[in-house]
Amino acid sequence: xxxxxxxxxxxxxxxxxxxxxxxxxxxxxxxxxxxxxxxxxxxxxxxxxxxxxxxxxxxxxxxxxxxxxxxxxxxxxxxxxxxxxxxxxxxxxxxxxxxxxxxxxxxxxxxxxxxxxxxxxxxxxxxxxxxxxxxxxxxxxxxxxxxxxxxxxxxxxxxxxxxxxxxxxxxxxxxxxxxxxxxxxxxxxxxxxxxxxxxxxxxxxxxxxxxxxxxxxxxxxxxxxxxxxxxxxxxxxxxxxxxxxxxxxxxxxxxxxxxxxxxxxxxxxxxxxxxxxxxxxxxxxxxxxxxxxxxxxxxxxxxxxxxxxxxxxxxxxxxxxxxxxxxxxxxxxxxxxxxxxxxxxxxxxxxxxxxxxxxxxxxxxxxxxxxxxxxxxxxxxxxxxxxxxxxxxxxxxxxxx
Length: 401
Fold this sequence. Notes:
Strand 1, helix 1 (18-28) and strand 2 (32-38) form a beta-alpha-beta unit. Strands 6-5-4-1-2-3-12 form a 7-stranded mixed β-sheet, with helices on both faces. It has a 3-stranded antiparallel β-sheet with strand order 7-8-9, covered by helices on one side. The protein has helices spanning 18-28, 61-66, 80-90, 104-107, 112-118, 143-150, 170-193, 203-210, 212-220, 259-265, 277-282, 284-295, 300-309, 320-324, 327-332, 373-379, 384-393; strands at 9-12, 32-38, 70-75, 95-98, 123-128, 197-202, 242-245, 251-254, 314-316, 335-340, 344-349, 396-397. The chain folds into 2 domains: 9-210 and 331-397, Crotonobetainyl-coa:carnitine coa-transferase, domain 1 (Rossmann fold), CATH 3.40.50.10540; 231-245 and 251-316, no CATH class. The longest helix is centred in the middle third of the chain and has 24 residues, at 170-193. The protein is an alpha/beta fold. The mean pLDDT is 95. The radius of gyration is 25 Å and the shape is elongated. The protein contains 17 helices and 12 strands. Keywords: Transferase. This is Crotonobetainyl-CoA:carnitine CoA-transferase CaiB-like acyl-CoA transferase. It holds the Pfam family CoA_transf_3. It comes from Labrys wisconsinensis. InterPro entries: CoA-transferase_III_domain, CoA-Trfase_fam_III, CoA-Trfase_III_dom3_sf, CoA-Trfase_III_dom_1_sf.
C-alpha cells in the first residue's frame, strides 16, 4: 500500500464546495474518487468564478481548487439505464457522497436505502445546509447564510461598522472536514462490524460546533456577558488583541501578550495605567486606539522584530499572494501545481497533512466534464456498444482533453 486510502472507491455525486473538498481530501490520500456529474454542464462550480476571470481563459478556479485526484463521468441521473449502471457500480463501492438538498437524490433513486439494498457495506455520506428535517429543511444552505445564522458574522468586524463575513467559505470547509471525519470513522467501524451506515453532516451544525468556545462563554457567563462588537474586532477578547497599523501601511496582528511587555517594547510607558485585566476589557477600544498610535511609529518589519524579540504573539497580516511567498509556506512546500489539459499549469495549495508511511499526493488534475466516462464504464464491464448508445442518447457526455 502506497497511500492510506488506496483500494477505497467513492461514488461522488457532490457539487460546489462542501462535498467536493471532502472527496478531494480523500482522493489526496489515495481513494479512487469517481465524480458523477450532470451530463452536459457538470458540477455547478464549473460555471462560477472569482474576480470575473477564468484560469487559462475557460476554467473556473473554484472548480480547480476542489476537484483534483478525481475521475469524472457525466450522466443523466434521470435515465433508468444510467440508474442500473450506477447501482451495478455501487455493488463494489465503499462510499457514496452527496450534498444536494434533502430528498433530491432519493427521489431519483439514489438515496441511502437504494444503495444499501445492493450493498449493505456501503457508507452513504449526505451533506446539507440545515439537516434533513426541521423547519429550515427547504431553505437554501449557503456558506455566508450559515455564517450569519450561527453567529460568526455578528462576532466579526469592528464595532462602529456593520458585521462582516469571513473572507473564505468557512462553513462549507468545516462541513467538508466533518464529512471526512464521519467517513473515516465509518470505514473504521465497518472493519469491525462489516456493516455500512448513513452519515448526515450539515453546515449549521458544523459551524455551531466550531464556535463552541464562544457558545460556552455566552451561555454560561450570564446575560451581561453579551456585549456589542468592539474596535478590536472580537467581542470577547480584551486589549491588546487586534490588528495594528505600521508606518509603511502594513499591518500586524497581536494576540495574547503581557500588556506591560507590549508597552515596554513600544517605548510607551504612558500606557501603564491600563495594565489591569478588567480595564483592558472595559476600555479595549480606547486601548486599541492608543496602541495603534504607537505601532504607527514603526515600519512593519521593525515592529515585528521588536514584538517577536520580546516573545509577543504576533504575525504580519498578508494578502494571499504575499502569503504564498512567505518563507515558512515555501519551506513547508505548501504551494504545489499540476498540469491541466486546458488551464495549463495550475498552482494550488498542497495537502496539509503529512504522513510518514502513506503520504498524500496530487496525482490527477481536476477533470474535464465526463473526461473519464468511457474508461470508468469499461472498467465496470459496460459493453462498448452500450457506452456509445448512452452518448448518442445524451445520457452521457464526454469532454475530450
